[in-house]
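User: quick one, fold this
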Amino acid sequence: YIRCEDSLDFFHATDKLARRAWIFRGHRVSDLNRTDKDWRLESSLCRHFRCHSKVTQLFRHSREGEMLRRFRQVAPNYLSHVPAQDDDLSWLAYMQHYGSPTRLLDFTFNAAVALFFAIREVEPEKEPWCVHALCVESIRGHSFDVRKEARPKSDVGLSPRRSEYRIGKKPGRQDFIGVVDGSLMNVRQAAQEGVFLVPSRSDLDLEDWLREIKPSNSLFPHGTHWLKFVFENTADRYYRSEERRVGKECRSRW
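Assistant:
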């Protein structure tokens, strides 16, 4: 954890991180001493399955496939442009955009955007909130190692092929996470410098997987591939204190 008194602390810390080498996600968190899972790094589809416990793990992949099939059927009636029929990842991006639960988890390359969404979700002096920061190279490197270990004689690329995610199908044996942007972006995502984390199966525990990564501390300014910038939210000062400390510089930055 890196505890921040105000947004100036946050930007001082994130300015040490290489541009577009890190991705960010902001949201409120449970009390830091609890084990509440409501605001872990978790996809909307994973939360959906947790709230509907009758959908057993065995049938989750088929439920995901059914949701995708139904969305793909009705989308042409409402959208002027749709992805190619077999481009499942782009279809999931559309579903995410229109509020359907998917395995995609929204991140951004822009720390200020993540901070905005974190602040937007909380009430002053109520629950704490945080911004997660993840090193893209560490995620891609660990995913490559996992996939290469399972298929040592195959030509495994650094980034997973779209077919490897097996969306709507029985999951493969390798647990990995892809970092996907580019062609999947809609207008809003492009403006927010958005990017998706895409797990290899819909019920993969992202935080457990991220803890398996063993980075070289020499590569990171803060000594780790996964940072949590925590705001206790005990005083309504996150804007005013920064304005008092840096004045016009603060206002121009926002």
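User: anything notable?
Assistant: The CA atoms of residues 21 and 137 lie 7 Å apart.
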